[in-house]
Amino acid sequence: MTIYFYSNREEPYGCFSNFSPHGFELDGFYWPTSEHYFQAQKFVGTPYADRIRLVKTPKDAAKMGRDRSFPLRPDWSQVKDDIMRRGVLRKFQTHTDIREVLISTGDELIVENSPIDYYWGCGADGSGKNMLGKILMEVREILRDRIN
Ligand SMILES: Nc1c(N[C@@H]2O[C@H](COP(=O)(O)O)[C@@H](O)[C@H]2O)[nH]c(=O)[nH]c1=O
């Protein structure tokens, strides 16, 4: 059965959301959520990236990352998938409890059920690319292979 998730408040799969409160260290810093990491990479090497890292909630990080009054790094569309993969992998490497939740989904399809996002999610009509779901399934395979 397909596993849908979106908000970090939905159990048991809320931990698949980038808004879930599972921090990790990566690239020399501590990131409170994978959303903080992802949004800050849009402006890597600038003071604005540091400001995103230090905000309290993933919602604030997402809002700041989407603010186009700060210039987006020019290679963003080429690197964004790899950045998401790196952050999500490190999150699930860091936390044993959610790693087990991810591996327990076996070979089920995982879908970010976002009604507005047709790139990371499936969008309102299910036609979206579901890139976050695909990355979670890739991470699941990497972590499963490491255990066996
Ligand atoms: N907007 C949202 C989520 N969507 C997240 O937003 C990010 C995409 O950002 P961008 O490419 O900047 O539009 C990505 O991490 C996606 O999973 N998730 C949630 O739990 N709750 C939300 O309210």
Automatic annotation (TrEMBL):
Gene3D superfamilies to which the protein is assigned, alphabetical: YbiA-like
Residues making up the signal peptide according to the UniProt record: none
Record protein name field: NADAR family protein
Domain (NADAR) ranges: 4-144
Swiss-Prot/TrEMBL catalytic activity: 2,5-diamino-6-hydroxy-4-(5-phosphoribosylamino)-pyrimidine + H2O = 2,5,6-triamino-4-hydroxypyrimidine + D-ribose 5-phosphate; 5-amino-6-(5-phospho-D-ribosylamino)uracil + H2O = 5,6-diaminouracil + D-ribose 5-phosphate
NCBIfam families, A to Z: ribofla_fusion
A Pfam family hit: NADAR
InterPro entries: NADAR, YbiA-like_sf
